Amino acid sequence: MSDNAKIPLQVVVDSREQCPFRFEGFNAVVEVAGLEAGDYSLQGFERRVAIERKSLPDLVACLGVERERFARELSRLRGYDCAAVVVEASADDLRAGHFRAKLNPEAAWQSVLAFAQRYRIPFFWSDSRADAEETTFHLLRHYQHDRMRELQALRIPARIAPAATERRGPGVGMDGKPNPPESRQRAANGPPSRAQAGTGAGT
User: Which of 63, 49, 129 is CA-nearest to residue 97?
Assistant: First the structure.
């Protein structure tokens, strides 16, 4: 296991979230705070990554009577580095109309497709609440992993530069061999002409 994988996720749960995921059994530390958008984020990245959790009844309401509010929420999330909607149900549950609201299942499904393409936010479907919790955890984990890789990449030049400077100190060439000033001067003037090099008769 890499060192990055051992670092616990600093998960931030929105204070308005009802019946939130607790991430028990996951490598995570949970903090409750107010989020501007979404239900789950990471500490220090609250305005860059957010996961919106929806039960099937919640989602159906967002596709019907609360449609405008849901659209505003997705519009805010569109500006994030990473945003997603995780649904505690399968797409088949929605399309088969396994809900009580008076909303046409096909119209509900088409609304999901329209929202996904309009706001460029994916919808992740789950087999259960536990599956949705795991999906949320791993989405946040992958985001943290990518940020850690970027940080490590930024540190690489700082490690290489001193070594390169030591190899190429004063009087040292690109190949690490001595390169005194007189050698550099000869190289700048080019090779001697035949007239300059010749000696004896005929010169």
Answer: 63
Strands 40-42 and 123-125: unpaired
pLDDT tens per residue, range 35-88: 999 999 999 999 999 999 999 999 999 999 999 999 999 999 999 999 999 999
CATH for 87: 3.40.50.10130
Predicted model pTM: 0.74
Question: Do the domain assignments include residue 168?
Answer: no
Work out whether strand 49-54 and strand 28-33 pair parallel, antiparallel, or are unpaired.
unpaired
Residue 158 lies in a domain: no
8 A C-beta contact, residue 50 and residue 83: yes
Q: Which domain holds residue 59?
A: 3-152
